[in-house]
Structure formats: C-alpha cells, structure tokens
Amino acid sequence: MRDEQRKNAKKLLAAILPRVMKDNGWEARLEMHSIFPDWEKVVDETTATYAQPLKIVKETLWIEVENSAWMQQFQYQKIMLLKTINGHLKNSKIKDIRFVLPHESRKAKVEEPKLKFVAPPRDEVEKFEEQSSFIEDEASREALVRLWYLSKACKRE
C-alpha cells in the first residue's frame, strides 16, 4: 500500500507542479537565472572574461564589468548582448541590461566568491532525474531538475 501512496503522491505533484510554477512566475524567473551558471556558454569569451552577471531585478540584468573602459565598450554592444542573452531563453525575456563597476571596498575585502560551484556526483543527478521523470511537462521537469542541481551545486564558503 505504501508504494501505491507514493505513486499517487507523485502523480498529484506532477499534475500540480507545472501550474504552480507558472502561476507564481517561478518558471520564467528560474529560466532567466539559468544564464548565471551558463554565462560562458551564453556570451562570447571576451564578454565572459570581463563581465559577470550580478543579479536580475524586474527583468533587468545587472552585469558587473571589470573597469570603466569595458563598461563603455559593453554599452555600445548592449543591444547585441541583449539579443544574445534572450536567444538563450525560451519562455522569458530580459528587457534591459545595466552595467556596474565593482565596489572598491568589496574588492579589497573579498578575494574569493562567497559561493562556490561544486557539481553534485553524476549518480545523484541521475537518481534525481529518474525521480522527477514522472512529471509529464518537459519544461517543468527540466526546470525542477535545474533548480535541484543548482541547490546542490552552489555551496557557501
């Protein structure tokens, strides 16, 4: 009987999860934030070297650039960069980009990032993918797996 209850619970979750994610806007926000771990794949090598995504606020991507010369260069490339980033997204769009310089005080205090990325073991990923395979909506299933992956991979130092 316990296995049957689990199957019913999984089916119920599979039916509810896509709607809850969509209704709360989590699906779009999760997709927008997918550019953070994929930044080197989303933009060209030069952009990835001299600029890093900082945050997304109200569909505006804040990008921290190395210095004012690069800030000016990226400002000229803003429209092309916006198109490139939005080309990576399927169900959401970044409407604007703001470029900022790193704070000098933060540079002096922090040498290492507060979060580090440690990929979870492949067997754990496969196990979670198998557990979530009951979700029929592919986009919701992929979003859930991505959320789980990021929750396991981002470690506070």
Task: Tell me what the structure shows.
- The protein is an alpha+beta fold and 157 residues long.
- The protein contains nine helices and five strands; from the N terminus they run H-H-H-H-E-E-H-H-E-H-E-H-H-E.
- The strands form two sheets. A three-stranded mixed sheet has the order 1-2-3. A two-stranded antiparallel sheet has the order 4-5.
- Strand 1 and strand 2 form a beta hairpin.
- The longest helix is centred in the N-terminal third of the chain and has 22 residues.
Structure summarized in a few sentences:
The chain has 157 residues and is an alpha+beta fold.
Whole-number mean pLDDT = 82
**Radius of gyration in whole Å, from Cα?**
19 Å
Output the strand order for the largest sheet. Answer: 1-2-3
Report the strand count: 5
Give the topology, please.
Blueprint: H1 2-23, H2 26-33, H3 39-42, H4 45-50, E1 51-57, E2 60-65, H5 68-76, H6 78-88, E3 96-100, H7 104-109, E4 115-117, H8 122-131, H9 138-153, E5 154-156
Parallel strand pairs: 2-3
Antiparallel strand pairs: 1-2, 4-5
